[in-house]
Amino acid sequence: MEEAYYQDSAQEEQQGEESMEIAVTYQTLDILQDHGVAVNDIQKLNDAGFHTVESIAHATVRKLSDVRGLSEAKVLKLKDIVKALVPMDFKTAADALEDRKALVTLTTGSTELDKLLEGGIETGSLTEVFGEFRTGKTALCHTLCVTCQMPVSDGGAEGKAIYIDTEGTFRPARLQAIAERFGMDPSVALENVAYARAHNSEHQMELLKMAAAIMSQDRYALIVVDSATALYRTDYSGRGELSERQMHLAQFLRQLTRLAEEFGVAVFMTNQVVANPDGMSFAKDSTKPIGGNIVAHASTTRLRLRKGRGENRICTVYDSPTLPEADCQFAIGPSGICDATE
What we know:
single chain; alpha/beta; 42% helix
């Protein structure tokens, strides 16, 4: 009897583990062939940067009409087809709550930081972290690239990572050390991170199109942009170009949000700070994140990092729809983000 009980328990545990597997949230364009869409039209959509049925459902008719070779009649027919495939109507708050329960969070490597974030970095939304230099922004990016590959039961999401580097601070050796700390094969961990160096703001936008293409081919859990605003800061200078800069930055952030919702990935971006001329010089923190309201409204969760004592850093929840305003301490070690030292 006892033996049978243990077998049942083992089976239940196994089923529980299986149910924790990540469900694919998107549908590839191949499905459209079954609904009478021509192969060459699907290829045109792919070439224009539409790789999932959801991306077509979320795009405007005007945007789809810009695809070379697609007439307005074809676009309207396409919209009717995807409307039946992608639910975009109202649902109850109870259903929305169930959807939220299925969200996976990525561990940061620090127990206290995970506690502050109620589990870690949330998938399916955009998290922004900002602070001065040497506050742990890039270290956090590197740590998440490894932890997102871990099993769900260990605080991961069993997916690969995309790293867009605008400042030249990506270091693969750091990933090796972090992978060893979590008991992973360093060579496998490195293979699971797709890295690209962005050289200007236009190239940065182009890389998001490439990211959408590779994410539709495999299971990805994280997109890192370090930093999202650095190139916009240098490509557009002075007040004369401010409105144009903010418009292009808004389009970039909208595309990031779209990828987070479409593929269910966590988008983690870093932001630089600027001295606040309105703030008093003796204020506790006289810096503010750049990008203004455009970045503030695009980010779901905003975290501020400050220097603490020694290698310790302080993370404060600056803005979040769910997390209370609070802070905690963590540390930067040779193998990524870890718990604070006394």
